[in-house]
Design a protein that fits this description.
The chain contains 2 helices and 9 strands; from the N terminus they run E-E-E-H-E-E-E-E-H-E-E. The protein has a 3-stranded antiparallel sheet, with no helix packed on it. Strands 4-7-9 form a 3-stranded mixed sheet, covered by helices on one side. Strands 5-6-8 form a 3-stranded mixed sheet, covered by helices on one side. It has helices at residues 59-82, 123-139, and strands at residues 10-13, 31-34, 42-44, 86-91, 94-100, 103-111, 113-117, 150-152, 155-158. Helix 1 crosses helix 2 (123-139). It is 25% helix and 28% strand. The chain is elongated. It is α/β, with parallel strands linked by helices and 161 residues long.
């Protein structure tokens, strides 16, 4: 398998309004994100504090979502190789952006995965499932690509028989 993979998206700004960028308050931050073969565009904007529309995805949310998705997919891989049967997984991830003058940067993301194992698992399996998060973190392409810490605060549940 080729060790390098390319990914392409198309961004179309839809917030020109009537005058374009004649002034900071004169243009919208709305845009569409598309990729070849995808059925739907992602409706994007800036975060509300930066004059964006709150009903559209902003880049910071998409970054946190990418981290959470990548961890999920890496975790499911690790669970499979460890013989752990995951029957449910959810995450309420968050990220923190610090502004600095006119710029800023993400300073942290925190994932809160709640993993439910199949009913036949026991407390020993739950401990192994908890430890699997560290391996999933090592494998996550997106987490390995960012310069800020990505913390994990997981919970493991065992389904009722």
């Amino acid at each position: 398998m080729d060790p390098e993979h390319g990914f392409a998206v198309e961004i179309t700004w839809t917030g020109a309004r009537e005058g374009g960028t004649t002034g900071y308050r004169d243009y919208g931050r709305d845009h569409d994100v598309r990729a070849e073969g995808k059925q739907h565009a992602i409706a994007g904007s800036a975060a509300r504090p930066f004059r964006g529309e709150s009903d559209r995805w902003n880049p910071e949310e998409m970054l946190v979502a990418a981290l959470a998705q990548c961890h999920l997919l890496s975790y499911l891989h690790v669970a499979t190789t460890e013989g752990l049967v995951v029957v449910a997984y959810r995450d309420a991830a968050s990220g923190t952006l610090r502004t600095e003058g006119l710029g800023g940067r993400m300073i942290e993301a925190v994932l809160h995965p709640v993993v439910t194992l199949a009913a036949h698992h026991d407390e020993g399996d739950a401990r192994r499932a908890m430890a699997a998060h560290a391996r999933a973190s090592e494998l996550c392409f997106i987490a390995n690509s960012v310069s800020f810490p990505v913390r994990h605060e997981p919970r493991i549940l065992i389904a009722e028989a």
